[in-house]
Design a protein that fits this description.
The protein is mostly helical. The chain contains six helices and no strands.
Length: 138
């Protein structure tokens, strides 16, 4: 019986490493960390950024698997929500930039004016959706 448990733990750990490695490889391949460092003119801290991404992934997995509760109060939850939104928004924008979805979309619908308004409305929609999700989840 204990051999089965050890085997299951080894398989689960190996699968976790594979998924985490794929996620971090995707983050690096999209150039998210390098782009943030370039935009903020802090390229000399690139290793700190990469360590922060790895630590966030590890801590997030630990909190998810072991259901750790961190008593931070409403302010802490708000700060977490802001950073989570920034992270998801950065992912979405990086993916749309990689596949060039905005230029293709504007050409297909023959949009000549109002692109800034469309992008602002998309961002507003994502914000409202996130707020509704977190409001009804907690």
């Amino acid at each position: 019986m204990w051999i089965k448990q050890i085997f299951m733990a080894a398989v689960g750990l190996s699968c976790g490493f594979a998924v985490a490695g794929g996620l971090f490889a995707l983050i690096i391949a999209l150039g998210l960390v390098a782009e943030f460092a370039d935009q903020t003119h802090t390229a000399r801290y690139i290793f700190w950024y990469e360590d922060a991404v790895a630590a966030g992934g590890i801590l997030g997995n630990l909190m998810s698997v072991y259901r750790l509760i961190v008593p931070v109060g409403p302010v802490g939850v708000g700060i977490f929500g802001i950073f989570s939104g920034i992270f998801v928004g950065a992912w979405a924008m990086a993916l749309t930039e990689i596949v060039n979805i905005v230029p293709i979309f504007t050409r297909r619908i023959d949009m000549r004016r109002g692109l800034a308004l469309v992008i602002a409305v998309m961002a507003l929609g994502r914000t409202i959706g996130s707020l509704i999700f977190y409001y009804f989840r907690f």
